[in-house]
Amino acid sequence: xxxxxxxxxxxxxxxxxxxxxxxxxxxxxxxxxxxxxxxxxxxxxxxxxxxxxxxxxxxxxxxxxxxxxxxxxxxxxxxxxxxxxxxxxxxxxxxxxxxxxxxxxxxxxxxxxxxxxxxxxxxxxxxxxxxxxxxxxxxxxxxxxxxxxxxxxxxxxxxxxxxxxxxxxxxxxxxxxxxxxxxxxxxxxxxxxxxxxxxxxxxxxxxxxxxxxxxxxxxxxxxxxxxxxxxxxxxxxxxxxxxxxxxxxxxxxxxxxxxxxxxxxxxxxxxxxxxxxxxxxxxxxxxxxxxxxxxxxxxxxxxxx
Length: 305
Prior knowledge:
The chain is of the alpha/beta class.
């Protein structure tokens, strides 16, 4: 029941985001080299990336639409004739997984256990609207391997650390770290175009986001590719963590004083925040007053005979 509520909320939020898009010129992907065979792609619905290994290509996150996938495959083909062998998904948001069925069928799919759970739940959600159809296509591509916590793998000669600290942006965030290249692909744990504070979806956690960011920033990395927006330095991301901790502490103080959500939001505005999502302030208020995950009586999971 709790899982259904979490996924339903995420789908409702994402549906609003898609509905509010306006027709415009075709999006053009921009492939930007980093180092050691690693690239990031800007210009689609979300940032993605890929790494050219010894004999194949490892893709980080899936583009969302057929046109974007076609552009990415064409861009990779211009750089190398090596086939795509692996797709690593950082989380279950549709702008990071919707294109999975459009990549080569032989490619290995890797994601966190909770990401797969969210995909399955979303594909069966009767309240998801058009996104349910999206996930019904994605769920036909079961991951070859799921991550429970942290794993270090070597894929086609590329050493990769796959890191899950806690629910942060979503319940299944996966940080992809290339130690030799000192590069982090952070997914939507890092979004640099949605205001000063992070976006936490249902299933994520403000404390989990802070813990994940601190673990990510403790890595020996110099380049951070977020799920949306431009690259930022470690110092800039550290400032984001400081801001989030400071805001969370301020909300907690007001909650302990018995202040209402309206009081808190009036005293602690978030200029520049994306109105399609709950503010970080609202997320923290809900966590401190309603609990995480949403509270339910202990007997709701009793098996009925």
